[in-house]
Design a protein that fits this description.
The protein is of the alpha/beta class. The protein is 42% helix and 17% strand. It has three domains: 6-50, 434 Repressor (Amino-terminal Domain) (Orthogonal Bundle), CATH 1.10.260; 62-161 and 295-322, 3-Layer(aba) Sandwich (Rossmann fold); 163-293, Rossmann fold, CATH 3.40.50. A hairpin with a 3-residue loop joins strand 7 (218-222) and strand 8 (226-227). It is elongated, with a radius of gyration of 25 Å. The model has no long low-confidence stretch (mean pLDDT 90).
């Protein structure tokens, strides 16, 4: 059987070759619903498969974007990827995904590989260690959108959650319950604006309610060794916290593991708010109150921003901030101390 060509589809659908081309490239602005349905039916009936290589040579576009993430199995990442993929499908774009496992060298190789594959643009949750390379790509013919984390001196399009306001709201909730000793469990945030924004929100809530901020209540966690000081040691302080605010799903998970070992009950013994939702939280004995970053929406906005940049060629840097939602569950109660 002879290979079906674009002319065959046009003849079958009773439209011009240019109309078929516009349909294949997702340009529907001046195309009626009836025409779109007729073209789609002809493509399906003839089993027409466009020659992607020929199209890319003609248009200088591959209709493919690359996505680089740090942990493809993470709950936030998986939801973000779904948002990216759904939006790309609706815009006739394909997606290639690379996973770095938090390794900057793998991230660098992934960037180069995607450039060699000729992707039209890249979405990346960066480690912060490849900023120069990302800037180089973004200034060339490969626009870049960063998401999830914003680092100091980022010079690309950006999609992040509204971290500061979300952290303020969560801290304020605990303060209104009577808690004045709130432990802020975080990763190092000195060079990561998205993490420092959360601290700023936590600090601002204390300031608004005239509560002195004890720097001893800011404690650190890292991916290799978990908490720098044990939860037990924090609770053994002369004036221990009555509430905890964890800044990452992995931190929340490690915290819950620790308090279970110590037979500490929420919310009777302490209150907890976590950043990011926990998978299947509804089945927990005590579902955790959380700040939900809406990762699916972050993914959609990232893909939308990148594809708009690809199509327009606009080099103006844009930043999209996605509001978070605060979801009250059962892990917080009024302060019962003196």
């Amino acid at each position: 059987m002879a290979k079906i060509k674009i002319n065959d589809v046009a003849l079958h659908a009773g439209v011009s070759k240019s109309t078929i081309s516009q349909y294949l490239n997702g340009r529907f602005d001046y195309m009626s619903k009836t025409t779109k349905e007729r073209v789609a039916a002809s493509i399906k009936e003839l089993n027409y498969i466009p020659n992607a290589i020929a199209r890319s040579l003609k248009t200088n576009k591959t209709k493919t974007i690359g996505v680089i993430v740090r942990d493809i199995s993470g709950h936030y990442t998986s939801r973000s990827l779904r948002g990216i993929d759904d939006y790309c499908k609706s815009s006739q774009y394909n997606v290639i995904i690379y996973n770095t496992d938090f390794d900057p060298e793998t991230e660098k190789r992934s960037l180069h590989s995607l450039k060699q594959l000729g992707v039209d643009g890249i979405i990346i949750a960066s480690s912060g260690a490849t900023n120069d390379l990302i800037d180089e790509f973004n200034q060339s013919d490969c626009p870049v959108v960063q998401f999830q984390l914003e680092y100091e001196n980022c010079n690309t399009n950006m999609v992040v959650s509204d971290y500061k306001n979300a952290a303020f709201e969560a801290t304020e909730h605990l303060i209104k319950l009577g808690h004045k000793r709130i432990c802020f469990l975080t990763q190092d945030f000195q060079t990561v604006k998205s993490r420092s924004d959360r601290y700023d929100g936590y600090f601002a809530a204390h300031e608004q309610y005239n509560i002195p901020l004890d720097k001893e209540l800011v404690r650190y966690w890292n991916r290799d060794n978990s908490f720098e000081q044990s939860i037990q040691s924090i609770l053994d302080m002369d004036n221990p916290p009555s509430a905890f605010f964890t800044q990452h799903l992995a931190i929340t998970t490690d915290f819950l593991t620790e308090i279970n070992k110590l037979n500490i009950n929420m919310p009777d013994d302490l209150s907890l708010i976590g950043f990011d939702d926990l998978p299947m939280a509804e089945f927990f004995k005590v579902p955790v109150t959380i700040v939900n970053q809406k990762p699916y929406q972050v993914g959609v906005e990232s893909a939308k921003l990148l594809i708009a940049s690809i199509n327009s060629g606009d080099k103006v840097i844009k930043k999209v901030t996605v509001p978070c939602t605060f979801e009250k569950r059962m892990s917080c109660s009024e302060y019962k101390g003196s």
